[in-house]
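Long-time lurker, first post. I've been practising inverse folding by hand and with some scripts of my own, and I keep getting stuck on stretches where the structure tokens seem ambiguous. Below is the full token string for one chain I'm working on. Before anyone asks, I'm not after the true native sequence, just a reasonable design that respects the backbone. If someone could post their per-position residues I'd love to compare against what I wrote down in my notebook.
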């Protein structure tokens, strides 16, 4: 229950803030920093996730979780007290730095306290929490900003976090042998700088920054990661154990996190735009289409946990990969005149795919390592998923902007007005049709690319060992994969 509450707190953060942010910007001003309120959180969460995972392996889950979650709650309090957009962005960055500990360590704790055959079922429940949070978050965010105050969007984390602290303190008992550790300070700094620079390059690419700036950030990030790889070979206790990626299951699971993050961004970031901008439907209809994925994700996660026990990780992941492909094919097929049922169906199928894939790859990865490396392996998947979200946002945003600009070079202001109910009055029917068609064409290309990424995810699923399952952990070792099972 403590892990589920911690996961719910972290999962709901993105959906509840996304709903409330327009009202927050209206209250604080500074619309030009709108995207940075999200980007700052995402950047710091991404670069700290692998570091927290490794520290949890070295110093125990509880104390590292308390440190990260404590920082998250302090920053949440400060976000609710923000008096302008610049302080809010800074506090959101601090909040993300704490959030990097919550989800990966909570998920790692499940891997510690449950045996492999139980872990598959429990991880299904944990994955289902994301679906529930995606449903509750937007409704709660809208209620708070409309009837109470936007500050509660951030302060609602405080009671949930307090109860989580108490429950972990009372019920989580770690049996560790105390010994001295050598903290990899240089590796941590290189990791944060390298990953941060690359993530920032992706964010700025999506925001149409100058090419020299993007190239400089990318070059600096890649250079730092190369130095990190050389340094980690000789580090006594490396912050990023590169040897883990020699394990087939861990490498496959990490790359699956990247592909799943990309596909999910095509849904979360762009399906509402298609429903409202191309199909001319209401925001409620867009929410219905997006909510279908949350519901199906929840039930698919539970089903995946049970299926893995009876069959194998590969079969469950394969079902997920096929569902992602079929879901993207449905979204490729929709047009401005399509019934709402089609985007709902595509969203439903992608949600099923995410539920099966995420649960299968996560549980198989945790079953492939011992206690001392489980935190790093779990954080690797989480980190790659965040990178996938950033890559998807940048690439798909560029594809959409290019597609719309090719049809209507001056479409920027028209698109903004089209998405506002009152803005329709200032647009002629011919312009509305042109802009809708341009959006549809751009998003059609987005889903074509998402379909290719879904195919890669299926290939990764098929790369898992055939008979590896929670009840047959030794199968991977017999296959010569160098895995340490539980």
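-- Answer (accepted) --
I ran through it position by position. Result:
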């Amino acid at each position: 229950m403590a892990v589920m509450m911690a996961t719910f707190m972290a999962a709901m953060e993105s959906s509840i803030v996304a709903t409330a942010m327009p009202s927050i910007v209206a209250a604080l001003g500074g619309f030009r920093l709108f995207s940075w309120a999200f980007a700052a959180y995402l950047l710091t969460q991404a670069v700290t996730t692998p570091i927290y995972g490794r520290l949890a392996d070295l110093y125990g889950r509880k104390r590292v979780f308390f440190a990260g979650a404590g920082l998250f709650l302090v920053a949440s309090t400060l976000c609710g007290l923000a008096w302008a957009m610049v302080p809010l962005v800074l506090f959101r960055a601090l909040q993300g730095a704490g959030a990097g500990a919550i989800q990966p360590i909570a998920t790692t704790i499940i891997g510690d306290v449950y045996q492999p055959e139980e872990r598959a079922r429990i991880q299904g429940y944990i994955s289902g929490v994301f679906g529930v949070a995606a449903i509750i978050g937007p409704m709660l965010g809208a209620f708070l900003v409309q009837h109470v105050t936007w500050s509660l969007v951030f302060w609602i984390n405080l009671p949930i976090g307090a109860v989580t602290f108490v429950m972990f303190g009372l019920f989580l008992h770690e049996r560790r042998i105390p010994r001295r550790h050598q903290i990899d300070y240089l590796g941590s700094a290189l990791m944060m700088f390298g990953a941060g620079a690359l993530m920032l390059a992706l964010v700025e690419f999506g925001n149409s920054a100058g090419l020299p700036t993007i190239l400089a950030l990318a070059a600096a990030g890649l250079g730092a990661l190369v130095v990190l790889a050389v340094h980690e070979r000789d580090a006594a206790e490396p912050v990023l154990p590169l040897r883990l990626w020699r394990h087939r299951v861990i490498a496959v699971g990490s790359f699956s996190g990247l592909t799943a993050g990309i596909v999910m961004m095509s849904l979360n970031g762009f399906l509402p735009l298609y429903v409202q901008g191309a199909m001319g439907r209401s925001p409620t209809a867009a929410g219905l289409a997006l909510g279908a994925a949350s519901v199906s994700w929840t039930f698919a996660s539970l089903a995946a946990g049970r299926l893995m026990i009876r069959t194998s990780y590969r079969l469950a992941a394969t079902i997920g990969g096929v569902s992602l492909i079929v879901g993207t094919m449905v979204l490729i097929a929709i047009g401005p005149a399509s019934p709402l049922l089609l985007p709902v169906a595509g969203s439903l199928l992608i949600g099923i795919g995410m539920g099966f894939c995420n649960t299968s790859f996560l549980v198989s990865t945790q079953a492939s390592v011992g206690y001392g490396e489980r935190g790093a392996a779990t954080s690797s998947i989480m980190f790659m998923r965040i990178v996938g979200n950033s890559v998807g946002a940048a690439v798909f945003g560029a594809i959409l902007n290019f597609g719309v600009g090719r049809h209507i070079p001056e479409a920027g202001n028209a698109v903004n007005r089209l998405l506002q109910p009152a803005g329709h009055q200032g647009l002629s029917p011919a312009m509305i049709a042109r802009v809708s068609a341009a959006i549809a064409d751009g998003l059609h290309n987005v889903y074509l690319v998402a379909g290719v990424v879904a195919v890669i995810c299926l290939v990764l699923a098929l790369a898992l060992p055939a008979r590896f399952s929670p009840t047959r952990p030794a199968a991977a070792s017999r296959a010569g994969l160098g895995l340490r099972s539980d």
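A couple of notes from the structure itself: Residues 474-486 have pLDDT under 50 and may be disordered. Residues 183-236 form one domain. Happy to go over any region you disagree with.
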